[in-house]
């Protein structure tokens, strides 16, 4: 297939570009050229908000929009595209209000989330535009992404503490659940959507079961063959000042994803 991927230079979009190149597809990446490009791609150097007729000459079998954050992002890209097939938009679990019963399901009414604020509201506005204007859109809602190329200081922070034999500070009793999804599995799932073209249009993705903070830290230390010396933090110390996740527990129902792609890379393997 001829596939357009937005971004292509950092974490999720770069991994996605390299993944589909390895799978033998003709991959185009759209970015401003401020960073090195993945090997094997065709680089379309442009600002996505000032595209003009740059994309009109291309016919893409699929558009994988990994880097849109708001309605304007998707609107300007859609207006600039020529002929294309499926459109996959990587949204977020932040579109679910924290007041909804959990686990969050795709058929629940979305809205503002006080933890994620404008980020979730803007992702939801982008979803709405695509659902109203691009009928061939698939919307994917991941939890925390993990895996190679992650540019967010999450697993890396724990690995560094383990490498330096530092104790690790965990919030409260360490029971806070965290739900992850491997960036490689996200790419495999997008590939499945393109292959199977399911009738459902919105998919939560992620490991079916979350892990607790304690479990996650222990798994990270175990990658280096170590066990953490744990320190439990309570009181008024802001959690984000010592731990890389917000004090927010949520779980996505991933049954739709599992019906299409039941095999998922084990989390310990991803961390390793």
Please give a structural write-up.
There is one protein chain. The protein contains 8 helices and 13 strands. The chain is globular and about 60 Å long. The protein has a domain at 2-147 and 180-206 and 251-265: 3-Layer(aba) Sandwich (Rossmann fold). The chain has a 7-stranded parallel beta sheet with strand order 3-2-1-4-5-6-11, sandwiched between helices. It has a two-stranded parallel sheet with strand order 7-10. A two-stranded parallel ribbon has the order 8-13. It has helices at residues 11-22, 71-80, 118-133, 155-163, 183-196, 213-223, 255-260, 267-271; strands at residues 2-6, 26-31, 42-45, 60-65, 84-90, 137-141, 144-146, 168-171, 177-178, 180-182, 202-204, 211-212, 230-233. With 272 residues, it is an alpha/beta fold.
Explain the layout of strands and helices.
Blueprint: E1 2-6, H1 11-22, E2 26-31, E3 42-45, E4 60-65, H2 71-80, E5 84-90, H3 118-133, E6 137-141, E7 144-146, H4 155-163, E8 168-171, E9 177-178, E10 180-182, H5 183-196, E11 202-204, E12 211-212, H6 213-223, E13 230-233, H7 255-260, H8 267-271
Parallel strand pairs: 1-2, 1-4, 2-3, 4-5, 5-6, 6-11, 7-10, 8-13
Antiparallel strand pairs: 9-12
Helix pairs in contact: 1-5, 2-3, 4-6
> Strands of the biggest beta sheet: in what spatial order?
3-2-1-4-5-6-11
Helix residue percentage: 25-40%
Shape: globular
How far the N terminus sits from the C terminus, by CA atoms, comes to 32 Å
Question: CATH superfamily membership of the domain at 2-147 and 180-206 and 251-265, which one?
Answer: NAD(P)-binding Rossmann-like Domain
């Amino acid at each position: 297939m001829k596939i357009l991927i937005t971004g292509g230079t950092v974490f999720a979009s770069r991994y996605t570009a390299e993944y589909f190149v390895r799978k033998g597809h003709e991959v185009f990446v759209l970015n401003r050229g401020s960073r090195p490009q993945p090997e094997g791609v065709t680089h379309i150097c442009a600002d996505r908000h000032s595209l003009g007729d740059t994309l009109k000459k291309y016919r893409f079998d699929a558009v994988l929009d990994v880097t849109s954050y708001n309605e304007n992002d998707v609107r300007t890209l859609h207006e600039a595209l020529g002929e294309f097939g499926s459109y996959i938009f990587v949204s977020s679990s932040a579109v679910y209000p924290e007041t909804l019963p959990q686990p969050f399901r795709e058929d629940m009414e979305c809205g503002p989330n006080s933890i994620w604020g404008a980020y979730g509201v803007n992702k939801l506005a982008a979803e709405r535009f695509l659902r109203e204007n691009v009928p061939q859109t698939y919307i994917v809602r991941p939890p925390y992404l993990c895996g190679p190329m992650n540019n967010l200081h999450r697993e890396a922070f724990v690995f560094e503490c383990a490498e330096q034999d530092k104790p690790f500070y965990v919030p409260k009793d360490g029971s806070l659940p965290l739900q992850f999804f491997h960036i490689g599995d996200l790419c495999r799932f997008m590939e499945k959507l393109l292959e199977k073209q399911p009738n459902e249009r919105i998919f939560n993705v992620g490991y079916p079961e979350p892990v607790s903070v304690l479990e996650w830290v222990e798994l990270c230390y175990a990658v280096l063959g170590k066990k953490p010396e744990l320190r439990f933090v309570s009181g008024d110390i802001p959690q984000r000042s010592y731990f890389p996740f917000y004090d927010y527990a949520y779980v996505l129902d991933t049954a739709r994803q599992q019906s299409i792609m039941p095999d998922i890379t084990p989390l310990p393997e991803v961390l390793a």
